[in-house]
Amino acid sequence: MKVGVLAVEPKREQWGHKAEFILSCVGYAVGLGNIWRFPYLCFKNGGASFLIPYGSMLLFCGIPIFYMELALGQFLRKGASKAWASVCPAAAGIGVAMMMVSGFISIYYNVIIAWSLLYLWNSLAKEIPFKHCKNPWNTLLCRDADTNVTCASLGLDRNCTLQFTTPSEEFWTNKILHSSSGVEQVGEVRYDLATALLIAWIVVYLCVSRGIRSSGKIAYFSATFPYFILMVLIVRGATLPGAYQGVLFYLSPDFSRLADPQTWIDAASQIFFSLSVGLGGLIVFGSYNNRRNNCEADAITVSLINCVTSFVGGFATFTVLGFMAHSTGLDVKEVVSSGPGLAFVAYPESIARMPVSPLWAILFFFMLFLLGIDSQ
Fold this sequence. Notes:
Largest sheet: none
CATH topology: Amino acid/polyamine transporter I
Main location: membrane
Order of helices and strands: HHHHHHHHHHHHHHHHH
GO molecular function, one term: metal ion binding
Protein name: Transporter
Number of helices: 17
Membrane topology: Multi-pass membrane protein
Structural class: mainly alpha
Subcellular location: Cell membrane
Helix content: 55-70%
Radius of gyration: 23 Å
Distance between the termini: 45 Å
Number of strands: 0
CATH architecture: Up-down Bundle
């Protein structure tokens, strides 16, 4: 009996160039988690020693699944739902589930892009608004680097220093989020945030409206320019006072953390989250390849680029956090945070203390915007 591949290869659009495929995969995999999640997990789980479980999960989980998804799409030349149905009709729900999860993620991811756009817009001012406490949204407890406020001058208890907030914190909670006291308070429509969200969706639509013909070409810029900005931020951060302490704090190994199961769980979750496996996007990207393409090499290349980006991005983060700790007289661990708190509070607070702060704010938030768009 002869066993062969499909007699007729389904007609499907193909990438204009191999570089478009690689850059699209890199842009899809490298996202905001590389900048704000990995450095924190590295600090939390033993510094440089965290690279051992991280590398292990990459080798035994990340790359194999990445390779499987690319190969599945490349061989069957179908999207996620149809590809799994072709493997086994009973597995059709896997592809549908992938699409649903991707849809849910894209909803909240676009909100983060909208936040980045708002910060980018506000950074275009001559003086960034999260640098001082002179704005309408600031409270009496706001204290910036140039203000010497005492509890007595505010008519408050002498322990009110524990309640002091920074301009970046109040800009985030009072200006960007307009945080309420609870979910029962619906509040009003935030027109600035709604406009930014609309712009984010329009940009995403324009990028994907013509399929890989448009997204592949856009990837030449959107997947590479963030690396240029990242290098600029690393060089700038390395010249700041306190940068060395930040890097030392980032890399100092604590091998005792390897005995903690949570360290390995964090490493696995970061690999899956960072490589964007299990969401169907990689199957779609692979489906536009020629069947003879070496997708094994592609999977290894993109996975390694993604993980190196995470590690290098930690230097951009911790040099600035080291500078912030030096400026405030605090320990580095007291200014370290994860997620939006790092990107929209801690990092802006550090930027506000730099010379020519609007320039660095524009570069940083433009980088976040590009990383978010690419991952969409």
